[in-house]
Fold each of these.
Amino acid sequence: MKRFFISVFISFFATLIIGAQSPEVVKAGNILDKVSEIIQSCQSIKADFTFTMENTQADITDSHEGTILIAGDKYKASVMNVESYFDGKTLWTYLKEVDEVNISYPDPTDETTLSPSNIFSIHKNGFRYIFAGEDVIDGQKVNIVDLFPEDRNKPYSRIKVYVDEKTHYIKKIVQIGKDGNNYMIDINHMETNIPYEADMFIFDPANHPDVEVIDMR
């Protein structure tokens, strides 16, 4: 479950695609294009978020605070006692509870391991979208876009994306699961163009002398 976070995060943000030209589709496309334009113009993005897993059938809700820093094709994410480091080539997944780090080369064509740094470029295929109305989050008006995967075998039926009307930042994302499991990300705070150093995206075993290294490259 812990390692599943990055996959969910990526799926949530896979939101931009060109579709049919009904008014609702056109409006949704314009909203998502603006999100992409603004995000891709930033040198770096840092977000504090709440990641929630909800099982509607069992009436279970489990929430966790997390952070992510993205700079180009690099990122560092932390949630549920798991830290992920990606320097553009190598991925380190550090499981803090067991003091273990897994090292791998992610497959860029694999949706479940695709870097969050690429989440705004995987929108070219795979989804249909439509404008689904408006709402208010933290006193701010948001536009809602519903996305539907063209692949009927996906474990979710749709993704709801809530976009701040003024800033064009994503405020919330909800993935509706076919099995009753829903995943939500509430973005509590986001900053852009944050200073960073290249070594922030590399796991340094020297800082964890007792860590067990599992190299899967």
Amino acid sequence: MPAMADCAAEPPLADSYHALLRLGVDGDVVVGQREEACAKVTTTPCDEGLTTAQPVAECELPMIDVGCLTGAGGKQVNAEEERAACAAAIAAAAAEWGFFQVVNHGVGQELLEAMRREQARLFRLPFEAKAKAGLLNDSYRWGTPTATSLRQLSWSEAFHVPLAGISGKGCNYGELTTLRDVTREVADAMSTLAGTLARVLAESLLGHPAGERFPEGCDDATCFLRLNRYPPCPFFPDDAFGLVPHTDSDFLTVLCQDHVGGLQLMKGSCWVAVKPIPGALIVNIGDLFQAWSNNRYRSVEHRVMTNATTERYSVAYFLCPSYDSPIGTCSDPSPYRAFTFGEYRRRVQEDVKKTGKKTGLRNFLV
């Protein structure tokens, strides 16, 4: 595994940590009370979305062979029966877990390994180059600019790139000449997989094919690829967020994580850790699919925990519509009023700015 980035490459996450520590947890801890601040964070119940010092059980998500959908599983003897069984398994996992894993997904293992190597090269660039050189359409992000307490700080950095920008003429890759082709190929393969799974999930509720354009308004201009890195965290790593608890504000997310682990999701009323499985991709339902499905599919809260000594990489594809796309419903009546993706995003951003956390779909209940 590649070595960790040197100090010049690291974003100033420690500065953010110390600044928020000085502010105190929820505004009532003064400088020097670090142990008390940590205790306040780590003893809060998990259902409030804060860190917890309690042991977290490890789980294996439902594993589904989707080769009959992607053509990556070889010739099927009973193709229609296998497709129906596969679709039923996907819909069941989306309803019970909101998460599932897929194999024979059509995204080549060699390609994913090449993406991992390119990510390592990208994130080892000096911080100044990542932050100010306009790389990948100036899409570099780190930490949580809006954080007002430690519980809102994400110990991570990322490039969040619209698919159209990956191969756009104005997209700057610097000296990373091989990054463009690998990133484009990963984006194309994940996009194909996400579209296939979304249509299968829709068909399971509609009772008939959803059409090649489902979800409406999703294309290269609206969907994103996010290249993530979670640096080692020296500050209480077992209780620090690499990515704060959240749900995804899209239709569907496809995730490739490495072997380090750290992804956790809410199951019942407690957090469970997702065991990394070599060769498998993770798929999760987003808020828009939960709304479209009238809550039959679940957009589940999840988070990433940090590691004290080892960096973690992942690649996530987000299936998003255009801002003016109405989300619609699989059947009437819907528990939600009509809204567009743009309305949803604006309301999420307003809530985070005002309260520090996302309210999400509850804002759009009838």
Amino acid sequence: MAFASFIADKIHSKMGEGTFGQVLECWDRERKEFVAIKIVRGIKKYREAAMIEIDVLQQLAKHDKSGARCVQIRNWFDYRNHICIVFEKLGPSLYDFLRKNNYRSFPIDLVRELGRQLLECVAFMHDLRLIHTDLKPENILLVSPDYVKIPDYKVSPRSPKDGAYFKRLPKSSAIKVIDFGSTTYEHQDHSYIVSTRHYRAPEVILGLGWSYSCDVWSIGCILVELCSGEALFQTHENLEHLAMMERVLGPLPQHMLKRVDRHAEKYVRRGRLDWPEGATSRESIKAVTKLPRLQNLVMQHVDHSGGDFINLLQGLLRYDPSDRLTAKEALRHPFFTRDVHRRSS
């Protein structure tokens, strides 16, 4: 049977689209289940990323028999120069869920459950000497699409949006990580730029090389976003990004600024960040100035566990990668362990 009919005969709907290609929801007659098929554009760099993803997924599946942490690969094939990867079908991404919820924050207990699973997945990958390098809410999927609507008392009565008095909560907090096309082994070259902008660690921007801890920084940014509803560093420019970090987290360490590579030298002057002198516009300075300190940002949204959560985030968002918590260390943090004691008492 031709693969064209293999796909077309069973297409149910389009689930998503990206620079790599598209994802279709299809019916698998043999397994009698819906699957997601990622169809990758027939361009060399996307094909190469797809083959890396297949290799990583097979490696992960070998060590994660229950398939509880990462999306499971069912099969793959090459059709007319398009790599097609067949996955189990999951629910929406955390980003899509936030967007459909008008970017309302998640309750702190749900953030805790999501954070725990995300750290467990990353600790598992790091044990296998793998670095994801592109963790973001778009690449974390809820296992189930089901949700409940609950009253939202924080909405202004004048809000014109339909359903504004209600917010969605996932029925299940189970998540899985996807998109391993940028995943790299620990021993490979780590000098190039990785991560999607908002979730990119300072050592990557400063050209200092990177390792496992760049994933941990991304997790810190993601947890702030889940707690607040908005990306922590909303910027598209390196110097502004670094200035935002300093505004939220305090000054960058001297020893890191002294070691910047030649591409990042222009962001530093006389041993400190060239800010606000080097800003490209007044709007840029305003965008940085309006950001609150990390503690204040969190306390605007968190009713309880605020102290533990802030302390965890400060460990995940340490500038120096060698001082940053590892995924395993983060899982032993009181933000997660105190909750266990509370529930068992």
Amino acid sequence: MFTGIVEEQGSLKSSEENGLVIRAQQILHDVEVKDSVAVDGTCLTVTEKGADWFRVDTMPETLRRTRLGSLKPGDSVNLERSLLANGRIGGHMVQGHIEACAPILSTQTDGIGLDVIIALPPELQGYIIPKGFVALNGVSLTVVDVWSDRFSISLIPYTRQQTNLGEAHAGMLLNVESDILGRYVANFLQTTRSSLQV
């Protein structure tokens, strides 16, 4: 479990057939082999580590669902260690289970904010709602507005400085995870309706 509060921007050191090697500093001081780390919001298991790097395995499903397979050496990735049981939830409950990859459609400055419009994957319609939570590249954000085929968020300067969302531009792919609580509620209502119609 994660909270969507990025601790560090790492960078991709190398891609392997079944894994990634990532450069990092801050998160490595207490990360051990077998620990979970969110890499751009994707929950992955540390399989090896060095003084300034760690390695994670990547399954084919991980590469199909996320933007990780499109990254090149040197690309920035958001990193977060898993939440301690006594830790503060600064964002929202994030599983690290990416549901879809979606492109940024446009960006526009609005005062100190950067408004970002993102394509809404059809399978996530109904799960992303105005003023609800969404995790993009592992960053906990509030949805501003939603339309039939897109949604918007607004990035404060701190988020742009501390995460790779500071690189936001049209065409950039983002890992998307909708709010798990909303998904449970929607699934429960759908199941309840189905059972009542039988």
